[in-house]
From TrEMBL:
UniProt KW Transmembrane helix keyword: yes
Keyword Oxidoreductase carried by entry: no
Xref: InterPro entries: UCP010219
Lineage top rank: taxon: Bacteria
Keywords carried by this UniProt record: Membrane, Transmembrane, Transmembrane helix
Transmembrane regions listed in the UniProt entry: 41-61, 68-84, 104-126, 147-167, 173-195
Stated name of the protein: DUF3159 domain-containing protein
Organism ancestry: Bacteria, Bacillati, Actinomycetota, Actinomycetes, Micromonosporales
Signal peptide stretch: none
Amino acid sequence: MAGHGRDESLADLLGGRRGAVDASVPPVAFAVGYLAAPDRLWVAVVAALVAGVVVAGWRLFRGRRPRAVVLGLLGTAVAAIVVLRTGRAEDFFLVQLAANAASALVFLASVAVRWPLLGVMLGLALGQRARWRRDPALLRAYDRGSLVWAAQYALRVVVFLPLWLAGQVVALAVARVAMTWPLVIATLAVSWWVIRRSLPAGHPGVRHPQPGEVSPATA
């Protein structure tokens, strides 16, 4: 990679586009099932589960990592169980709402303790472990990039919570799609731009941490 990585993007390094698209399918299927039979929640639940299984099978066939596929299917299954237990269609989105709130808090906490989660993710993806933390410029860049990710999750909570409280199932499904893969792609692009802009001129980029003096707060 030359310079700051002009030929790469954060999506190339972390992936995420396909997973974000996959995550949109079961909620859409759930909403369609709900519209078809609003008085029979099991129809919507079965539609979401079938959609999840089809997506999982297709991704396995295409060679995606089984772990990622299983986690995606598990999320759909948990959401389905919640709906069947509560009898409220809007609760299909409750797990996602809670997950986004938790993710926003985790990203903010990671910046506060100077272990920005975006740096941890990229460090693992690039096989660097924690070497990036010895580079003050890279640590600062990952702090800023992680704040972009925290804002992404917080924005979803701000949009999803009123809709969930109002029981707007179809609106929740639309918001889920609109704020899943488009927002993930935007977050990947913006956080990558923030990281690159935060690195000083001449820095070789995220693949090449430059050890320097680290303050006690970052040690």
